[in-house]
């Protein structure tokens, strides 16, 4: 019985990588699907040389793809594009970021009041720096925590080279 279980375990272990590799490969998507997409949203483009670019979709023609990347237009010929993903940000990201910043107001006020009411003598430079640090730093930390709690963006493959 132990030998049978041992052999069965090895069969499962040896066949799992093959199954995973088969499932990991995405089906080839058509350039027409990409062309017929709504002209809104963010894309992530991987060229055949391995470089990746992200930006807002501007237009897609039969021969090229154009995105707005950091305020500059980037064009990619169809024959140099390897994969294209549609990137969707979490819908609740702004809500979580706002909640994180609002939740940071109370700790910020407590620190400001504590530093403001302390006696500093002749030089109050450190207390002033602490107040400024609390006003800037704590809400920023709240924003980043809210952003992390909102989750990651989702990528959907819309085109891959056949």
What does this structure look like?
The chain is 48% helix and 26% strand. The chain is an alpha+beta fold and 162 residues long. The chain has two domains: 26-90 and 152-160, SH3 type barrels (Roll); 93-116 and 125-150, no CATH class. A six-stranded antiparallel sheet has the order 4-3-2-1-5-6. Helix 3 (93-103) packs antiparallel against helix 5 and helix 4 runs antiparallel to helix 5 (125-150). The radius of gyration is 26 Å and the shape is elongated. Residues 18-26 have low confidence and may be disordered.
**Portion in helices:** 40-55%
Q: Strand order of the main beta sheet, please?
A: 4-3-2-1-5-6
Mean pLDDT: 78
SS field, number of helical segments: 5
CATH topology (fold) name of the largest domain? SH3 type barrels
SSE blueprint:
Layout: H1 2-24, H2 31-35, E1 42-47, E2 52-60, E3 64-69, E4 72-77, E5 81-88, H3 93-103, H4 105-117, H5 125-150, E6 154-160
Antiparallel strand pairs: 1-2, 1-5, 2-3, 3-4, 5-6
Helix pairs in contact: 3-5, 4-5
Provide keyphrases for this structure.
48% helix; six-stranded antiparallel beta sheet; 162 residues; 2 domains; 6 strands; alpha+beta
């Amino acid at each position: 019985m132990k030998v049978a279980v041992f052999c069965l375990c090895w069969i499962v272990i040896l066949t799992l990588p093959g199954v995973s590799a088969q499932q990991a490969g995405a089906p080839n998507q058509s350039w027409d699907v990409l062309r017929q997409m709504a002209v809104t949203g963010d894309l992530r483009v991987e060229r055949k040389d391995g470089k990746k670019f992200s930006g807002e979709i501007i237009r897609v023609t039969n021969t090229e793809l154009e995105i707005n990347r950091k305020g500059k237009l980037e064009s990619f010929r169809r024959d140099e594009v390897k994969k294209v993903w549609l990137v969707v940000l979490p819908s609740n990201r702004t809500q979580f970021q706002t909640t994180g910043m609002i939740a940071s107001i109370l700790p910020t006020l407590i620190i400001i009041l504590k530093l403001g009411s302390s006696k500093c003598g002749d030089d109050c430079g450190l207390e002033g720096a602490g107040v400024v640090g609390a006003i800037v730093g704590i809400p920023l930390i709240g924003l980043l925590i809210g952003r992390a709690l909102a989750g990651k963006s989702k990528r959907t493959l819309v085109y891959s080279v056949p």
